[in-house]
Amino acid sequence: MKVPSAAISRLITYLRILEELEARGVHRTSSEQLAEEAQVTAFQVRKDLSYFGSYGTRGVGYTVPVLKRELRHILGLNRRWGLCIVGMGRLGSALADYPGFGESFELRGFFDVDPEKVGRPVRGGVIEPVDLLPQRVPGRIEIALLTVPREAAQEAADLLVAAGIKGILNFAPVVLEVPKEVPVENVDFLAGLTRLSFFILNPKWGEEMMG
């Protein structure tokens, strides 16, 4: 069964809600409560969870720690993923200093093509040349944060795939061509701003999307 990408995004939201509930000492919750917090319907919550199994008890609801543990397992957060940043310009450097990767993601490499940047210390490591990717990725790094300019993105992606990377978080405003077994998540700030400009000018469309 193919799971919609939107359902995965909602699972992440449910997990964050469960973490907040647990922090407040709440032991049980319901699809209605999760739906209210996530701004979806209770039916949608139950449908999203049903892709992966049967959770909760009718009339009783969900045990917060148990459902939280199950969602972390589904989302692959019950392990530690090795990350690298390719492209140590302003965005890459800002991400290197970001403190919120959490316990499931660990920065293990920083790479750039600029000789003037190579060797510079960053967050417990040093920037290395991209030529070292084939030596650094295998067995150590699974996910790359790609923060290079648009015109360099495909070549950098090719290098990462050849080195054995498992997934790419792409910040470049370009569609990457990679093997289907290497998932790519695109982070496009300009596209997000453009969507906002559309929904601000067309509020009824925004209401339909939220509904």
UniProtKB/TrEMBL annotation:
<dbReference type="InterPro" id="IPR036291">
    <property type="entry name" value="NAD(P)-bd_dom_sf"/>
</dbReference>
<dbReference type="InterPro" id="IPR036390">
    <property type="entry name" value="WH_DNA-bd_sf"/>
</dbReference>
<dbReference type="GO" id="GO:0003677">
    <property type="term" value="F:DNA binding"/>
</dbReference>
<dbReference type="InterPro" id="IPR058236">
    <property type="entry name" value="Rex_actinobacterial-type"/>
</dbReference>
<keyword id="KW-0805">Transcription regulation</keyword>
<comment type="function">
    <text>Modulates transcription in response to changes in cellular NADH/NAD(+) redox state.</text>
</comment>
<comment type="subunit">
    <text>Homodimer.</text>
</comment>
<dbReference type="InterPro" id="IPR009718">
    <property type="entry name" value="Rex_DNA-bd_C_dom"/>
</dbReference>
<keyword id="KW-0804">Transcription</keyword>
<dbReference type="InterPro" id="IPR036388">
    <property type="entry name" value="WH-like_DNA-bd_sf"/>
</dbReference>
<feature type="binding site">
    <location>
        <begin position="87"/>
        <end position="92"/>
    </location>
    <ligand>
        <name>NAD(+)</name>
    </ligand>
</feature>
<feature type="DNA-binding region" description="H-T-H motif">
    <location>
        <begin position="13"/>
        <end position="52"/>
    </location>
</feature>
<keyword id="KW-0238">DNA-binding</keyword>
<dbReference type="Pfam" id="PF06971">
    <property type="entry name" value="Put_DNA-bind_N"/>
</dbReference>
<dbReference type="GO" id="GO:0051775">
    <property type="term" value="P:response to redox state"/>
</dbReference>
<dbReference type="InterPro" id="IPR003781">
    <property type="entry name" value="CoA-bd"/>
</dbReference>
<protein>
    <recommendedName>
        <fullName>Redox-sensing transcriptional repressor Rex</fullName>
    </recommendedName>
</protein>
<keyword id="KW-0678">Repressor</keyword>
<comment type="similarity">
    <text>Belongs to the transcriptional regulatory Rex family.</text>
</comment>
<dbReference type="InterPro" id="IPR022876">
    <property type="entry name" value="Tscrpt_rep_Rex"/>
</dbReference>
<keyword id="KW-0520">NAD</keyword>
<dbReference type="GO" id="GO:0045892">
    <property type="term" value="P:negative regulation of DNA-templated transcription"/>
</dbReference>
<dbReference type="Pfam" id="PF02629">
    <property type="entry name" value="CoA_binding"/>
</dbReference>
<keyword id="KW-0963">Cytoplasm</keyword>
<dbReference type="GO" id="GO:0003700">
    <property type="term" value="F:DNA-binding transcription factor activity"/>
</dbReference>
<feature type="domain" description="CoA-binding">
    <location>
        <begin position="76"/>
        <end position="175"/>
    </location>
</feature>
<dbReference type="GO" id="GO:0005737">
    <property type="term" value="C:cytoplasm"/>
</dbReference>
